[in-house]
Amino acid sequence: MSATCPNTRPCAHVGATVLANELLAERTWRLRLSCPEVAAMAQPGQFFMVRLPGRTDPLLGRPFALYDTVLDGAGKLIGLEIVHLVVGRVTGLLSGLNPGDQVEIWGPLGTRFPEVPERVKRVTLVAGGIGQTPFLAYTRELTGHRGFGGAAPRRVADRVELVYGARRQELLAGLDAFVEAGAQVLPCTEDGSIGLKGRVTDGLDSGEKPEWIVACGPEPMLHAVARWARERDVPCQVSLETPMACGLGICFSCVVKVASSEQASGWDYQRVCVEGPTFDAASLVDLSK
Ligand SMILES: Cc1cc2nc3c(=O)[nH]c(=O)nc-3n(C[C@H](O)[C@H](O)[C@H](O)COP(=O)(O)OP(=O)(O)OC[C@H]3O[C@@H](n4cnc5c(N)ncnc54)[C@H](O)[C@@H]3O)c2cc1C
Ligand code: FES
After folding, report:
1. Is 102 in the pocket of ligand 2 (CB under 6 A)?
2. For the CA of 134, the nearest atom of ligand 1
3. Going by CA atoms, what residue is nearest to atom 11 of ligand 1?
4. How confident is the model at residue 288 (pLDDT cuts 50, 70, 90)?
5. Which of 15, 44, 71, 79 is deepest in the core (most CB within 10 A)?
């Protein structure tokens, strides 16, 4: 079923068949779905609501980022992939799916990553926890490996760096895929089991000053990266993983405070599922303190 979602962007609500379900890292699964109609519209930074059909518990879908699109041997778009960390009910059930099983998916939802300004030649992606998931499709787009949403592939950045942090090596998922997509990957682990010993901000300190940062991960990490960028005057976008109920702009369960000159308070609420999930870090009231 195709539809225009209440967020007015084209999206579809379809049943999708599981093509593969593979353990990528500790508690981290890559789910490949056959849904060419949704995949054809999806762009890096957008997400989907995924639900297990025929169940009332859990009733609601859960949001997952576009990880990658899937092409068949002849280069025809046949579906998409999400990568998820098992944390609760739905992610637990998704990890038990087998090829041929069905899920419900609606999307793509939210905004894509913003346009990279022409002067920017080096894009620095910063991921923590499961925050790497929106960045594989984005790396492919930035390096010109693949086009999304019907666009032809076009190289956007001379260099794409991924600073990817986790507590330990076993939690880092998909490093090879990022390298294959053309990113220079710097893993950062708190126990030093691979890459740089330390946090993603230590990783940022260790390299050339970034020109343009896009970050995704747990809130404390986003705070630290936003502060790091602010102190060095580096533009920083953040992709939020705020819990969501509807994903469509109706319930207002996902709002964040965004700076607004139109309000006496100096800020207004925006919905992460419609106006986001990506925001300029400097515009987010709670991140710019
Ligand atoms: C735009 C967007 C994109 C996302 N992309 C991905 C992705 O690509 N891969 C991925 O693994 N996850 C992603 N998430 C987070 C994912 O939606 C949640 O992990 C998922 O909803 C958990 O569902 P559950 O039923 O397994 O857990 P539940 O049973 O609902 O909850 C289990 C525990 O996890 C906590 N929790 C639930 N949702 C979140 C959340 N959003 N943030 C922090 N804690 C939470 C709950 O408070 C509870 O403690 C994304 C979230 C958003 C908003
Ligand atoms: S999740 Fe319902 S408005 Fe965003």
Report:
1. no
2. 8
3. 84
4. confident
5. 44
- In order, the DSSP letters of 265-287 are TSEEEEETTTT-SEEEGGGBTTT
pLDDT at 143: 98
Residue 44 lies in a domain: yes
Summarised one tens digit per residue, pLDDT across range 132-141 is 999 999 999 9
Q: What is the pLDDT of residues 46-64, one digit of tens each?
A: 999 999 998 888 899 999 9
Residues 72 and 126 grouped into a single domain: no
Quote the ligand 2 centre to 29 CA distance (angstroms): 25
Domain range for residue 209? 122-241
- Residue 175 and residue 83 share a domain: no
DSSP bridge partners of 183:
none
How far apart CA 28 and CA 48 sit, in angstroms, is 18
- Give the nearest ligand 2 atom to 273 CA: 4
How many domains, the chain?
A: 2
List, in sequence order, every residue forming a beta bridge with 280; answer none if it has no partner: 237
> pTM of the full predicted structure?
0.96
Strands 213-216 and 47-51: unpaired
Domain final position from 84, 109, 134: 109
Residue 1, pLDDT score? 47
Q: Band of the pLDDT at 5, cuts 50, 70, 90? A: low
Q: Which atom in ligand 2 lies closest to the alpha carbon of residue 274?
A: 4
Tell me, yes or no, whether 51 and 144 share the same domain: no
With beta carbons less than 8 A apart as the criterion, state whether 44 and 57 touch: no
Residue 281 alpha carbon to ligand 2 centre in Å = 20
**Is 249 within a domain?**
no
